[in-house]
Amino acid sequence: MSQREMDNEANIGQESDAAAELWTGLARLPEKNDIIELLRELRGAGRKQLTILLLGKSNVGKSSLVNSLLGEDAMRVQAFKLQADAEVATVVTRQVSISDDEIDGFRIRLIDTCGLEDSEAGDTVNLTALKKIADDLRGVPIDVVLYVDRLDLYRVDSLDQAVMRAISQVLGQDIWSRTVVALTHANLSQPPPGTSYDSYVDGRVRLLRAAVPRRFLFRPKLPTSLVENSLLCPLSPESGHRVLPDGTEWLVGLMGDIVDVALAKKRAYEFRSRPNQKALIAALLLPLAVAGEYLLFQKVIRPVLESNQRRVEADEQRVWTLRGLQRKAMGLHAANKPSDDVAKRLSQMYDDD
């Protein structure tokens, strides 16, 4: 890792390994035992830390989701938008300490980011913010990305599509293979008229997945979890876990998807500067162009030149043969055909004249 990458990794969280706080909120989570078992799976696979990057527009609940995952008010909930000279990301790192040698010391690192739209410029993508996020992430291993949006929005508009395209262009298409879609405000008591909760959720998920740019001919199959950050989220009478209208225990489900995605990849995602696309294409095409020119010369041009040369030599031979017959009929000795060197010098003499 370069010095710049190490500096960025330190700057994005401004936390050294020794500075991670104890995860005190874990004990307050109703889903504590299930979360610990999921973290055991990561620890059993040799993982010592789980790093999660949250991306999405403003006001979709990214910061609230950080607080829900940790069980504490680690992030101030507000419209996290990019201001002049402001940080584009805030990192919270917590360390497990539950008097269990198997899991103690495991760290969870959450990277919250600013909204990716620029409402002041007419609801366009805030490429300045996204590029600053990418620059700060350079060399930082990311296990899972949470793309956060709201369930209670009824459509995917052009801005949503533009944000997803920008993420692919700046951070790379591979980032979607490590992404879980988290849909907040999922405690819908009244879905749109004429539809059930389940059918509405299916339609919303299908629209979001269809908006993700294709990689070659395929779109990534994004796992999707429903989220309700509100304190008014109902609790299951059996388990005491927070549940949604369809009975889903959302925090356990979300953490399960996160762990599955993290374990599915042997290596974490790391942002690297992408080379200039035009220069890369030119570099790839240059050998093909040279090879094409070589094949064109060998298979087309060279045979034509050789055929023309043989035709010229045959014509010259006929001329000298005819001249010899004429001189013989006149009782003269046969004409001597000049050597190639003499013919070349004679040709140069005539050209000079």
TrEMBL record:
Origin superkingdom: Eukaryota
Keyword Cell membrane: no
Pfam family, one: AIG1
Molecular functions per Gene Ontology: GTP binding; hydrolase activity; metal ion binding
Cofactor(s) in the UniProt record: Mg(2+)
Annotated AIG1-type G domain residues: 47-280
Record's signal peptide: none
Gene3D superfamilies: P-loop containing nucleotide triphosphate hydrolases
Name of the featured protein: Chloroplast outer envelope protein
Lineage of the species this protein comes from: Eukaryota, Viridiplantae, Chlorophyta, core chlorophytes, Chlorophyceae
